[in-house]
Design a protein that fits this description.
GO biological process, one term: innate immune response
InterPro entries: C6orf106_UBA-like, Ig-like_fold, Nbr1_FW, UBA-like_sf
Shape: flat
CATH topology of the largest domain: Immunoglobulin-like
Subcellular location: Cytoplasm; Nucleus
Structural class: alpha+beta
Main location: cytoplasm
Oligomer: single chain
Largest sheet: 5 strands, mixed
CATH architecture of the largest domain: Sandwich
Strand content: 25-35%
Order of helices and strands: HHHHEEEEEEEEH
Number of domains: 2
Subunit structure: Interacts with IRF3; the interaction inhibits IRF3 binding to its DNA consensus sequence.
Radius of gyration: 24 Å
Length: 216
């Protein structure tokens, strides 16, 4: 496309030549993936529609019209807090997936940001959780309630931070799940939850304080 400020690399051009579909949903999905999920599906459809659903032209239009003045928040993935490498979970089991993330930029995040499911396996019905605005370099944990698939195997899904205006930013956050009949993750999380609840209950030493038989 003439007037493009950004050159497309040969590998990307090869992907264009191999994509011979006219299915609009497939084109939107591919456009979104090639841009690293920087646009929501509606934004992808806008650029594709204005270029007569030509994927290569739509990518060029996106880079032509992308405003360099827009301040994009920064986010870095720090670590998996739950479901780390090598952990497994039984089929059809509720669990909580927690990531540790950081505002790696020089500005605070705008209000109304959230973590959104963007691709792969979703693990339940939750597709978005609100996240508080983090100050520069601040670290926080983000959790999502999930449920493992009914069949054993390896599964993976992708999540990304998103502004209130629909702009995706930061690292892609992965859920890589090993579902095994003998998986113990669900049990360990339940035990951890029970232990936390038990430790927060008041420990009663007797009906009348530390002296069960009263004072004479």
């Amino acid at each position: 496309m003439e007037g493009m400020d950004v050159d497309l690399d040969p590998e990307l051009m090869q992907k264009f030549s191999c994509l011979g579909t006219t299915d609009k949903d497939v084109l939107i999905s591919e456009f979104q993936r090639l841009l690293g999920f920087q646009l929501n599906p509606a934004g992808c459809a806008f650029f594709l529609d204005m270029t007569n659903w030509n994927l290569q032209a739509a990518i060029g239009a996106y880079y032509d019209f992308e405003s360099p003045n827009v301040s994009v928040p920064s986010m870095s993935f720090v670590e998996d807090v739950t479901i780390g490498e090598g952990e497994s979970i039984p089929p059809d089991t509720q669990f909580i997936k927690t990531w540790r993330i950081q505002n790696s930029g020089a500005e605070a995040w705008p209000p109304g940001v959230c973590l959104k499911y963007v691709g792969g396996d979703q693990f339940g019905h939750v597709n978005m959780v609100m996240v508080r605005s983090l100050e520069p370099q601040e670290i926080a944990d983000v959790s999502v309630q999930m449920c493992s698939p009914s069949r054993a195997g390896m599964y993976q899904g992708q999540w990304r931070m998103c502004t209130a205006t629909g702009l995706y930013y930061g690292d892609v956050i992965w859920v890589i799940l090993s579902v095994e009949v003998g998986g113990l993750l669900g049990v360990t999380q339940q035990l951890s939850s029970f232990e936390t609840e038990f430790n927060t209950q008041p420990h009663r030493k007797g009906l009348h304080g530390p002296y069960p038989f009263g004072q004479s």
